[in-house]
Design a protein that fits this description.
single chain, alpha/beta, Isoleucyl-tRNA Synthetase, Domain 1, four-stranded parallel β-sheet, 22 helices, globular
């Protein structure tokens, strides 16, 4: 990466001056003064008991005395009280861009891939998908694609909630309404779950009956199993259609039910390691550590009535994944409110010797809020189902311009996806964000349509000129030209941040900034009226690479590009 390369140059200069220290270089926060800066002078001066101004000037002088200084820099100067400011040479910028014009943009791809299991989606069977399911779905898909692009092997699993209390509640409702298994419809499921769920809160007897049905289903009751299979069939048809619409795919469509066959093995392991403790008739695993500063309750493995819980099946799923895939990492993308749950499960897995704590990651996401700052609701006051949300977004985009009404259906759907996904992925995943449909449907501002429009507009400029070039000259022609080239150089840093932190917003932010630079570039530089062939070839080279980066980085966010806008 640029930062690391420049950091090594400054570190070498510091070493030649007699200082052993790793010097860190960052993108300049004053681009009007320089391209990159080193702020490590202060810490090095303190450690060396020296004046930072004297030390900084000494290192800067050493850098300027490099034999190959011009290969890297146009200017390196010290700025009081302790900054080393670096302006890159045109030669360095252009050579780096040429290297980028290769497979995967010359990013650092791993030579020894790890195996990552990515657990996201987590849909509950028999419940309609609503806006709360959106974030883990599209964030998880982006994380998977970024890890895969880095060169690692990914295994994605939706991990359905298909054996919990909600199934018992729906079965109760189906039996109450005398609906046979072969007559179950999606409308029945959408109606019955909220209805019976509310009834359970009001009536303790109904709650007990639903819990008993759930327990008997888990124990293999044939009648309930037949109904459950039909519920699965109807629910999965709807879920898969929505995932296909979102361009989201899973390698495995497993769920809680698949983990049940491993529960006995896990329980034996916990017993053998003397981790299961009886508490009021239930079995728990104490996962509290002496270093904990906050309360950490024990993980409940089995209820007093013998029923298992989410923690039990999550632990059994870890055991299953270890035996099937032997992963180096398992990443769970879920709501941030499940932090304690996963902390308990990860600690229990570590104690039981299933998969060690350091190989298990929770990548939590915040909530999607309305313009009032509260969780996004429809006018009816409930969380919109995903199909409703897509329709709302589609209407908002079409209403913006008369010509949008004549767009191809496939293009409209691609744009709806871009609106929804970019609105989400531009935010740090653990933060809540406001979903403003009217704002995010616009073709101006930090929106999906703006990104798509930039790509299509740039693509049209390139096609209209009809010139293909494979060479880049040594010149940089003006400030906006240089700005675009420098932005291209920042790709690897943004990509690496997204990979290491499991935060796709670094890639999303980069795409937006690159589009802003590209827009500035072709608004000021009028390629169609340019007579200098060398200049024109260089700029076509630059725009072609820019569009390639935009398209490929968008694909990591599962965003496609329409044929027209």
């Amino acid at each position: 990466m640029i930062n690391e390369l420049l950091g090594s140059i400054v570190s070498t200069a510091a070493l030649k001056c007699g200082y052993e220290n790793t010097m860190t270089v960052i993108k300049s926060n004053r681009p009007d003064l320089c391209d990159y800066q080193c702020d490590s002078v202060f810490s090095l001066a303190k450690a060396s008991n020296k004046n930072p101004i004297e030390l900084g000037e000494e290192i800067t002088k050493e850098i300027n005395s490099m034999d190959n200084f011009d290969d890297y820099f146009k200017l390196v100067e010290f700025a009081k009280p302790g900054f080393i400011n670096m302006t890159l040479s045109d030669k360095f910028i252009n050579e780096f861009i040429v290297k980028m014009n290769s497979d995967k943009f010359n990013l650092s791809i791993v030579k020894k891939p790890n195996t990552y299991v990515i657990d996201y989606g987590g849909y509950n069977i028999a419940k309609p998908l609503h806006i709360g399911h959106l974030r883990p779905t599209i964030i998880g898909e982006a994380i998977k694609r970024i890890i895969n692009y880095k060169g690692h092997k990914t295994i994605s699993d939706v991990h359905l909630g298909d054996f919990g209390l909600q199934i018992g509640q729906v079965i109760y409702g189906l039996k109450r309404d005398d609906i046979a298994a072969n007559e179950i419809t999606l409308e029945d499921l959408n109606r019955l779950y909220p209805e019976i769920s509310s009834l359970c809160k009001e009536n303790a007897e109904t709650q007990k009956e639903c819990e008993q049905i759930t327990k008997e289903l888990q124990e293999g009751n044939e009648e309930y199993t037949l109904i459950w299979k039909k519920i699965m069939e109807v629910s999965l048809l709807e879920i898969k259609e929505i995932c296909n619409y979102l361009n989201v795919s899973f390698d495995f469509w497993l769920g809680e039910s698949d983990a049940y066959k491993y529960l006995d093995d896990v329980e034996k392991i916990l017993q053998m390691k003397k981790l299961l403790v009886e508490s009021e008739g239930a079995l728990v695993v104490h996962v509290k550590r002496d270093t904990d500063k906050k309360e950490m309750p024990p993980m409940l493995f089995k209820k007093s009535n013998g029923a298992y819980l989410y923690a039990s099946t999550d632990l059994a799923t870890i055991y299953e994944r270890k035996n099937k895939f032997n992963p180096d990492h398992i990443i769970y993308v879920t709501d941030i409110r499940q932090n304690i749950h996963f902390e308990q499960v990860f600690r229990a897995s570590d104690l039981a010797g299933l998969i060690s704590y350091d190989k298990l990651e929770h990548a939590p996401n915040g909530t999607t809020n309305g313009t009032d700052g509260k969780p996004f609701k429809t006018r009816k006051g409930d969380a919109p189902k995903l199909r409703e949300l897509f329709d709302m977004v589609k209407e908002a985009f079409i209403d913006l311009k008369e010509e949008n009404k004549d767009m191809a259906t496939d293009d409209i759907n691609i744009i709806v996806n871009a609106i929804v996904k970019f609105a989400d992925l531009q935010n740090a995943r653990e933060k809540d964000y406001i979903f403003d449909i009217d704002k995010f449907a616009q073709v101006v501002g930090k929106t999906g349509p703006y990104i798509l429009y930039t790509y299509l507009r740039t693509n049209k400029v390139i096609k209209d000129l009809g010139i293909k070039t494979s060479k880049l000259g040594n010149k940089i022609y003006n400030d906006v030209d240089r700005e675009l080239r420098l932005k291209l150089l920042e790709l690897e840093n943004s990509f690496e941040l997204s990979f290491t932190s499991r935060k796709p917003h670094y890639v999303a932010e980069y795409i937006y900034e690159l589009c802003v630079a590209a827009n500035n570039f072709y608004q000021i530089n009028h390629l169609s009226s340019l007579n200098d062939k060398e200049n024109l070839n260089d700029w076509i080279y630059l725009l072609t690479l820019t569009n390639k980066v935009i398209k490929e980085m968008l694909s990591l966010l599962a965003i496609d590009i329409p044929t027209a806008m």
